[in-house]
Every structure is written in structure tokens, then in C-alpha cells.
Design a protein that fits this description.
It comes from Timema podura (Walking stick). It holds the Pfam family YbjQ_3. This is C2 domain-containing protein. Helix content is 21%, strand content 23%. It has helices at 10-17, 66-80; strands spanning 26-28, 50-56, 87-89, 93-97, 103-109.
Length: 110
């Protein structure tokens, strides 16, 4: 993929839009099946998972860099499923909740 940036200020914005690649052996998509993945490549051991992360937000500070928090959330999923490689994580559903005025909760379901 090639992205042309003509303004130096846009570099930060584009970097927020780029997702880090998953570890080798993981196929990660938001749809029910991985497009183009040969049916014989993966074992159909269907399981559902949920990973949650909850933290206090310091008073007067905004919830900064949500993409970094979601990346850490996915890293925890990759770590827990590392023995199931090759692994397809499909139909991912992310949510952000604010259960208390000073707390944030992120979750991923797949």
C-alpha cells in the first residue's frame, strides 16, 4: 500500500488511521469469514471470545489515543490464542463504554 502525503501536518493523522499488522499466523477481519482464505488452511474449531479492558481516566484529561488502547486489547487476544495458530479472528465487534464519569471500558467480541 502506498499513501502519498502532501502536508507535513497530515502525517500524524495518517499514522492514526494505519492499523498495525497482526502477528504471523493470525487472520483478523470484521466479517464472518476471511475472504480468500482456503477452507483447508484452518481447523474449524469455532469458539467465541471476549476481551475487556477497564481503566480510570484522570480528572480533567481526555481519553487519549483510543487506537493504542485497542491495539493493546488485541495484543492480549493474540497472546491468549497463540497456541491456536493458524487462527482466524472473525466478526470482531468493538465497544467503548463509560460506566462512570472517570472510567473507560473497551471490549472486543469475536
Amino acid at each position: 500500500m502506498v499513501i502519498a502525503i502532501d502536508d507535513a501536518e497530515d502525517v500524524d493523522v495518517v499514522s492514526l488511521l494505519m492499523d498495525p499488522a497482526p502477528p504471523e499466523g493470525f487472520h483478523v477481519v470484521n466479517v464472518e469469514t476471511v475472504p480468500g482464505l482456503n477452507e483447508m488452511e484452518i481447523v474449524r474449531n469455532l469458539q467465541m471470545f471476549t476481551q475487556m479492558w477497564r481503566a480510570k481516566i484522570p480528572v480533567g484529561q481526555q481519553a487519549s489515543n483510543l487506537s493504542e488502547h485497542f491495539h493493546r486489547l488485541l495484543q492480549a487476544v493474540y497472546f491468549k490464542l497463540r497456541r491456536m495458530v493458524p487462527c482466524a479472528l472473525c466478526d470482531l465487534q468493538f465497544s467503548v463504554e463509560l460506566p462512570e464519569p472517570d472510567e473507560m471500558q473497551l471490549s472486543v467480541l469475536g
